[in-house]
């Protein structure tokens, strides 16, 4: 990976050209139509791109606050060796991702940085890869977009399958067993991926020292007094906390990306104390957002080509055509994993694949709920080697995709075997 994996921007450019060519070969779309599909889809993820920028910025700002640093430091104190650090960061990331995918992306990377500060001799690349690997369980957890979608009254496929409770998807025995096995096996796998000492890449802990704003004293202008006063931060912070209290009372512990960002933002405002300290942290955080801003529109263009040309449907139908009532769930999982390379959005991928997969499930008399979860697992699985989702974690860590992807490939293989066996035999 270090030798051959290009920068994520070049990766998405190459992926764009590959999808363009596949569309010409396997669909009846002309070259001009493929250009049209690409251009029309290019800006389709603008709102989501801004959400992901805020995931990075608000997560970084919260983590750089004195209060949260102490909390992460407390968790990191349980790691007494490089091996235990790798195991702990994997488990923490998996728990956070199972609760909410946005929460998991940020917390895992931030916790890995804290461990790198405190644990001598731990390989920083593997630490971040282990933190990112926890993301593989997100679609089987509380924020899984596919199981939550089909459990919602009025979802697009209700006439075909009705409303399916999360007790048949997220909390079904086969899904819980797969998640439980991954919780045991993935930390052990990450531990065995530790390189020998002479190949270990460590970082100087002093490199993680963030620039903190100093509290100005002496003769201050009225504007400077406001910038260094805690009053305004506390007032606006309390308003944010009041809304969060109202939201959770009304909706229960239903986290979504907007609520996670809202939570991180207002806790960051409160924990930094003054507006000046908060804004200094923001200025540091936005330095890592360039990759997200530039690359996400290209992925949106790829999604446009995949869906409008029918290429995603062609891929799905190819796997369905070789399936039987035993292998169907496995091939649904595999096809979703491949489609996810080109349509890295759970909701978008389900919109494309659901009509084909659900129709095939009914033809084969297969479980619709398990079919949905097979697609969900496939979507989450290949995120391990998809730079699209790794960008926020990499920006927080200060690494490149090629630094962690070699480790992620091994985790992809092990997790893929576990998920496949679970879908085939449970």
């Amino acid at each position: 990976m270090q030798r051959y994996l290009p920068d994520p921007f070049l990766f998405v450019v190459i992926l764009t050209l590959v999808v363009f060519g596949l569309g010409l070969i396997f669909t009846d779309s002309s070259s001009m139509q493929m250009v049209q599909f690409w251009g029309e889809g290019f800006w389709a993820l603008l709102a989501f791109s801004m959400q992901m920028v805020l995931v990075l910025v608000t997560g970084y700002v919260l983590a750089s606050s004195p209060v949260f640093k102490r909390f992460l430091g407390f968790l990191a104190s349980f790691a007494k060796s490089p091996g235990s650090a790798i195991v702990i960061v994997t488990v923490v990331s998996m728990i956070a991702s199972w609760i909410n995918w946005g929460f998991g992306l940020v917390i895992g990377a931030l916790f890995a940085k804290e461990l790198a500060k405190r644990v001598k001799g731990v390989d920083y690349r593997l630490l971040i890869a282990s933190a990112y690997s926890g993301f593989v369980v997100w679609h089987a957890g509380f924020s899984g977009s596919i199981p939550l979608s089909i459990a919602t009254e009025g979802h697009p496929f209700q006439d075909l399958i009705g409303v399916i409770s999360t007790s048949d998807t997220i909390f079904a025995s086969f899904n819980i067993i797969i998640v439980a096995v991954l919780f045991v096996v993935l930390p052990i796998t990450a531990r065995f991926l530790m390189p020998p000492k002479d190949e270990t890449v460590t970082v100087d802990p002093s490199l993680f020292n963030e620039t903190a704003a100093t509290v100005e004293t002496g003769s201050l202008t009225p504007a400077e007094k406001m910038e260094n006063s805690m009053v305004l931060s506390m007032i606006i912070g309390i308003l944010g906390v009041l809304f969060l209290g109202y939201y959770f009372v009304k909706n229960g512990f239903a986290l979504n990306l907007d609520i996670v960002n809202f939570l991180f933002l207002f806790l960051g405002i409160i924990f930094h104390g003054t507006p000046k300290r908060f804004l200094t942290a923001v200025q540091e955080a936005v330095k890592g957002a360039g990759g997200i801003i530039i690359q996400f529109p290209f992925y949106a263009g790829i999604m446009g080509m995949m869906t409008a040309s029918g290429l995603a449907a062609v891929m799905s139908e190819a796997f369905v055509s070789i399936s039987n009532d035993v292998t169907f769930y496995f091939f649904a999982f595999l096809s979703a994993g491949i489609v996810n390379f080109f349509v890295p959005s759970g909701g978008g991928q389900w919109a494309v694949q659901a009509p084909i997969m659900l129709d095939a499930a009914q033809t084969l008399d297969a479980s619709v709920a398990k079919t949905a979860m097979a697609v969900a697992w496939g979507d989450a699985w290949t995120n391990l080697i998809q730079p699209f989702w790794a960008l926020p974690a990499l920006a927080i860590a200060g690494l490149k995709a090629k630094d962690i992807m070699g480790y992620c490939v091994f985790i992809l293989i092990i997790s893929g075997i576990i998920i496949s066996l679970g879908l085939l035999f449970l």
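The two ends are 35 Å apart (CA to CA). The chain has 21 helices and no strands.
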